[in-house]
Design brief:
2 domains, 11 helices, 59% helix, two-stranded antiparallel sheet, mainly alpha
């Protein structure tokens, strides 16, 4: 039987996660909203640099909140919480404790990912749509990228904790119909909630997913009980009409080259997702930082030359230099641990 305290923890965590995502996205939209220099490469790099730094702050908060949530869950389930410095390597990727941020998209840097809103805007303009519609498409791309990055950060923190907990034999995703506008969870999550994941396995995700997780021990599977309560409420509210549709929903778990495992609807869409998911060669944290620094330093030199001629690019130059400073400190921290 799920305790009242555990139920409150789960509900609070879901709200906090949603609030952090909204806050981070709002900060990014405030940054991107006034931007109109869509063909200026160096100003675009500066936008991406500022975006990456903003999202990394959100990712750190997401990881901290996920660990705090799991700490309380472990206490309720009477499981010892692993210490923060118990870290394992994962497929050759360097995972470093402390202040060094790891980007959880495979084979790409944050700087590359946050230049994608520029590509989104230029693409839609090339199709002939008006600027307002292209800006709306850009804003949606920014929101989706940021929300996914926060989800990836929470997912990795969860995997790290579970994988270092001998008492945890697996885990289950917990649906949150109360967070949706119509009071139901998407069919993909409902079906996926019946699956048990290995403690070291990354949970498949999808865009704008609001699921949380609960560990499974030899004696307890609280997520299963909680999901059944929610499903019964969904079916009762719909007079039983949705149960057949939900149970018929086909789910594919697709290995996405950049995001890791994702949820896709049905075999056909899963096939398209596989084609769209480019294979990404793994890169270490050090290689990612070096790659980002190379781009930023070249672009920063160009902006500095433009500033010297009197062009007002100081704000963009500051963003690039701030990012360079952050990355240089991370690189030093990584190399010290070798």
């Amino acid at each position: 039987m799920i305790s009242e305290q555990l139920l409150k923890l789960i509900e609070m965590q879901a709200k906090l996660v949603g609030g952090l995502s909204i806050q981070t996205i709002q900060m990014l939209l405030k940054l991107w909203g006034p931007f109109r220099e869509w063909t200026d490469y160096d100003l675009g790099v500066a936008q991406a640099a500022r975006s990456a730094t903003t999202v990394e702050a959100g990712m750190r908060a997401a990881k901290q909140r996920e660990r705090a949530y799991l700490k309380h869950v472990y206490k309720e389930l009477r499981i010892p919480m692993p210490t923060d410095d118990v870290i394992t390597s994962d497929g050759g990727r360097i995972i470093i404790p402390g202040s060094v941020d790891i980007y959880f998209r495979e084979g790409v840097t944050p700087l590359e990912v946050y230049q994608r809103p520029l590509e989104e805007f230029r693409y839609w303009k090339s199709t002939g749509v008006g600027e307002r519609e292209a800006l709306a498409k850009m804003a949606q791309r920014v929101s989706t990228i940021a929300d996914t990055d926060l989800t990836l950060a929470r997912r990795e923190e969860t995997r790290k904790v579970f994988n270092n907990s001998p008492e945890v034999v697996g885990y289950r995703r917990v649906i949150h119909p109360e967070l949706s506008e119509d009071g139901t969870s998407c069919g993909l999550c409902v079906v996926a909630s019946t699956r048990v994941y290995d403690s070291g396995e990354l949970m498949p995700i999808h865009d704008e997913c609001n699921c949380s997780v609960l560990p499974i021990t030899a004696d307890a599977d609280p997520g299963d009980e909680l999901n059944q309560d929610d499903l019964n409420a969904i079916y009762e509210a719909a007079g039983g009409n949705t149960s057949g549709d939900l149970l018929k929903t086909k789910v594919s778990f697709v290995a996405h080259g950049e995001l890791g495992p994702i949820i896709s609807g049905g075999n056909r869409q899963g096939s398209k997702q596989r084609k769209a998911a480019k294979d990404r060669s793994p890169i270490t944290a050090e290689e990612s930082i070096e790659k980002e620094l190379h781009t930023l330093r070249k672009s920063s030199d160009k902006l500095a030359a433009r500033a010297a001629t009197g062009e007002d690019v100081r704000r963009y130059l500051t963003w690039q230099r701030d990012r360079i400073s952050i990355l240089e400190r991370r690189l030093i921290a990584i190399r010290r641990q070798k």
